[in-house]
Design goal:
By secondary structure, the protein is an alpha+beta fold. It has helices spanning about 75-80, 90-100, 140-150, 175-195, 205-215, 235-240, 245-260, 275-290, 300-310, 350-365, 400-425; strands at about 60-65, 110, 110-115, 120-125, 125-130, 155-160, 175, 200, 220-230, 260-270, 315-320, 325-330, 335-345, 370-375, 385-395. Helix 2 packs antiparallel against helix 9, helix 4 (about 175-195) packs across helix 5 and helix 7 (about 245-260) packs across helix 10. The protein starts with about 60 loop residues before the first strand and ends in a 13-residue tail after the last helix.
Length: about 450
Amino acid sequence: MARALGHPCNLDSGDSSPPLVLVPTLQRVNQFCPAPAGLGRRSAAICIPTLERGNENNNYMPKINIVNSLAEIEASQWNSLAGDYPFLRHEFLAAAQQSGCVSAETGWEPLYLTLSHGKTLAGAMPLYLKSHSRGEFVFDHAWADAFERHGLAYYPKLLCAAPFTPVTGPRLLANTHEDRRTLAEAAIALARRLRVSSLHILFPQTSDLAVLRELGFMLREGLQFHWHDAGYKTFDGFLSALNHDKRKKIRQERRHAHEAGISFLWLKGGEIQDRQLEFFYRCYVNTYHEHWSSPYLNLEFFQRIVQSMPNRLLWIFAVRGDEPVACAMNVIGDNVLFGRYWGAKQFVSGLHFETCYSQAVEYCIQHGIRRFEGGAQGTHKMARGLLPTATWSAHWIANSQFSDAIKDFLDDEKLSVEHYMEELNNHSPFKKNSVFNI
């Protein structure tokens, strides 16, 4: 199976460096089943067959439904399942849908799968019917191309994900292994009923992976770069754990910002003013345009989450005097800070790294946050103290011959990713006696 390197841009943080992406040719697949029929718009909820079970003590009848709008689901029940993971909170997903960022027109048609025990919401999956692969950060464009070259339609496909967000977290939203398994089985049943090519679950957490392995999903390994607090009391304490070259690089970036008259302002969501939010949005849009792309989110989306989840949002502004120069948006989770979006209206040497990484790490140290996730891809993040961390996605392919070919490819790719991660770990930015090198 041939391989080539792909070069998608990391638009969530403004990074254009190429990740390791292996592309399969799938040349050994010769015969396929007919392509799925086209799917029309759904104006009402879809119901798939009820799953029924019983026992001696009660009438246990879990019910599976599909609804098109989170407005039909009580926010407190949904959030009791999503927990502290901000990107699947009711307010985040509702903002994406109400602002029009998530819709059939944008290629993200919501099909929220729910599991109920009586009147209690016991499980949920954020499912979307996708007509493309943009905004996913797990690259399957070569798979789509192989389908088309053999006369099959890859789109629409079914996707379970936090929209536009490459952050590991819960995907089978339930409190028990049995309920998570029921959700995954129902998602497969829905994929079969809709006759889509495939079902993809992106960035699932460990408890979800266990279920997906049981059900025969193919797992795909990726990597990101995360910072972990090793008990640093100050930012200088963190710098002292780095080797000389990396410590010098970060100090040089800070010096460049200072010499350019740049200072930094940290604002929580409730503190940001309309003009500051509008400046951030112009920077966000500019980052996409610089990479010859279009932004996924509109200003209304950000306005909505500022109102509905302000304590989850952190903006880091680079300012010169009273004028903002650049901005990075972060999202606060359970003892973790997620770096999401960045942009600038003018170039200052090293400002991207200082604003997106060093300022975020310093915020974490000052506020006792144990982990910082700096977004998708980017080996340059290692020089700022972020280390390679495995991520996962899970894939179910309806066509058995394509499924076999993709499984072979993923087995080979996993070896390559693990070798790549081993090489990265051999070039740690920390001193040899650091806790991360012991």
